[in-house]
Write a structure and sequence with these properties.
3-stranded antiparallel beta sheet, Ribosomal_uL22_bac/org-type, alpha+beta, single chain, Ribosomal Protein L22, Chain A, ribonucleoprotein, 138 residues, 33% strand, Ribosomal_uL22_bac/chlpt-type, ribosomal protein, 3 strands, Large ribosomal subunit protein uL22
């Protein structure tokens, strides 16, 4: 089974918000997941859809797989760098603001297509029964 990957790094959205959408599409076919993501009203759904379409394009162009033979094996959400900002509050104090980023890794798996073995070819000039007689006498 082939594994196809696509990455999106340093996405300016919290990992918690992405998890909400990712849990809806795990273990689905990518074509079905893209249809579902069209109707999810979150910012993260557009980002995940973009990475998923990138992985499908990688499978098509680099490995020659059809979209119907693909399956989402896993979607990995990991923490990226955190931008630290501050907000001034009363009495000269400062409260920290953490602007979190996220890395997304989509791994697709291609189903193996079973090929039917071809029947042995018989040349037109020979009688197929004559080959059997010759093999028995040896």
């Amino acid at each position: 089974m082939n594994q196809i990957t696509a990455y999106a790094k340093n996405i300016r959205i919290s990992g918690q918000k992405i998890f909400l959408v990712v849990n809806q599409i795990k273990k689905m076919k990518p074509t079905d997941a893209v249809k579902i993501l069209d109707f999810v009203p979150n910012k993260s759904s557009k980002i995940i859809k973009k990475v998923l379409l990138s992985a499908m394009a990688n499978a098509r162009n680099n490995f020659g797989h059809k979209d119907e033979s693909l399956l989402i094996k896993e979607i990995i959400i990991s923490k990226g760098p955190v931008f630290k900002r501050s907000r001034a509050v009363a009495r000269g104090r400062v409260h920290p603001i953490l602007k979190r980023t996220t890395h997304i890794k989509v791994i697709l798996e291609a189903e193996e297509t079973k090929e039917v073995p071809k029947a042995p070819e018989v040349s037109k000039g020979e009688d197929p029964k004559s080959n059997i007689k010759n093999q028995k006498s040896k």
